[in-house]
Amino acid sequence: VLDSDGVENSTTARVIVTKPVDDPPVADAGPNRVVTLPHNNITLNGNQSRDDHMIVKYEWSLSVDSKGKVPVMQGMQSPCLQLSAMPEGDYTFQLTVTDSSGQRSSAEVTVLVQPEANRPPVAIVGPDKELISPVESTTLNGEGSTDDQ
Questions:
Q1: How far is the C-alpha of 15 from the C-alpha of 17, rounded, in Å?
Q2: How far are the Cα atoms of 19, 71, 92, 114 from residue 61, in angstroms, in the given order?
Q3: How far is the C-alpha of 59 from the C-alpha of 91, rounded, in Å?
Q4: Interval 17-68: pLDDT, tens
Q5: What is the pLDDT of residue 149?
């Protein structure tokens, strides 16, 4: 710098250019779930996954721990996975999210499909009957009996 009197001075400044902070995403596949047959469909929700910029891809898959099980899976590329036709057993699903920088994160959720509860039947034979001699027999009607199966 030169002033009006001809005096000159200079200095050096150091400029550091850094990349903006871009944290990786955090996948959240939701809480573990339990389903009791005959109800065998459920929706898993991964929309609690988060990123400091933007999640651009959701990918659901059945874990290799669940081999041999083949549920019907819809919405495998969306935040919510719809599951149906699930036979009894344990299932582990993995959600992988990818952010706008290509960074990835995964989380797992377990679904337990339990057998249907089999409660004892309820026997109903109708109202009490009184036999007066010489009558030795009567007919009871069990059509009101019920069972949960």
A1: 6
A2: 33, 11, 9, 21
A3: 16
A4: 888 889 999 999 999 999 999 999 999 999 999 999 999 999 999 988 887 8
A5: 62
Pairwise CA distance, residues 122 & 88, whole Å: 26
SS3 state at 66: helix
pTM: 0.70
Going from the C-alpha of 64 to that of each of 2, 42, 48, 81, 118, the distances in angstroms are 73, 20, 24, 17, 31
Question: Bridge partners of 73?
Answer: 83
When mean pLDDT is compared across 62-76, 100-114, 132-146, the lowest value belongs to 132-146
- Residue 106: pLDDT over 70: yes
Q: Which residue has the tokens 């059509």?
A: 143
Exposure pattern of 60-91 as b/e (b: 16+ CB <10 Å)? bebeeebeebebebeeeeebebbbeebeeeeb
